[in-house]
Amino acid sequence: MAREHLTILDLSDREFLLIVRDVSDGDGWADAIDVADQLDLTDKRSASSRLSWMKRYGAVEREYERDEHGQLRTSRDGTPKHTQRWRLTELGLAMATGKLNKTTQATLERMDSGALLMTARFLSGRAAADTSAGKLVMREWRHGVGRY
Amino acid sequence: MTVVSNGHAPNRDDFEAVDERLAAVLDAEVSDLQEILDDELSARAQLQALFEKSKTREKRLRRAIAALSGESAQHTTQQDKATRQAGMTWHVSDEAVERVWAGFMKLYDQKGEPVTQTMVSDSMEGIGPDTVRKSLERLRSTERVRLAGKTRGGGKLWAPMPGGTDGA
User: Fold this and answer.
1) Nearest CA-CA partner of A81 in A91, A95, A67, A97
2) Which residues of chain B have pLDDT under 50?
3) A11 near B CB under 8 A
């Protein structure tokens, strides 16, 4: 069966993270299957795959599997086991719900082309140096440029 | 004397551990390929945008040539008509976008959950489904609405973006 696409052009990371939040329980945990259902994906792996990427970028965390005493369950090699539930991290929540304040937005809107170029240069430098949010910044750029 | 033994039969945990490692390796492989595919699609979208811009420039140049040389601009006009019929070139006005935004928010507040384009369209008078569709895409591009899911039939579900009600 052909794999369904759930690319950055189909759905921005911000939209994806908000869907994770929409289907989450009271503690913020969302099941990958619920995310896939919300997007009407027949291939549930597409949602898991995107979640795995979001985890690498630091936007979500994956729940550890625990026994009845609350102890972490591990594989024989000592690696902790995970469930299929995911939750937004602080960075992920900032990406999903954050916004520019009005002063910053107004300043950016008033910029002429030259200032805009300098800002782009500054931002690309910041993104390249930022190991946590850098990749998400690049993906946000790719979504904006590719889609609109 | 060396004792040759097959050892113990692997228990269930061994299989689970191997399964999990294999699943992790496969998942990483698939994710890597998905990322490459994302790049490819992104590159193609940019080329497509360049292609569309080139077609627009071509059309303008043809019109200019027709006007300056006194030749019939019929060819160009026919092309424009065909393009219009295909619904490729029209843009929704700012006023229409604001009307759709108001209608969308009213409906969303009533329902308290994501709504479809058809629901928005049905709730508004004097505004066509195409205008609603294009307006929602415009509102999405300015991050006032977001794609919040899909229906079983594949229709898009829309919700306001956090902060979207502040205006853009």
Assistant:
1) A67
2) 168
3) yes
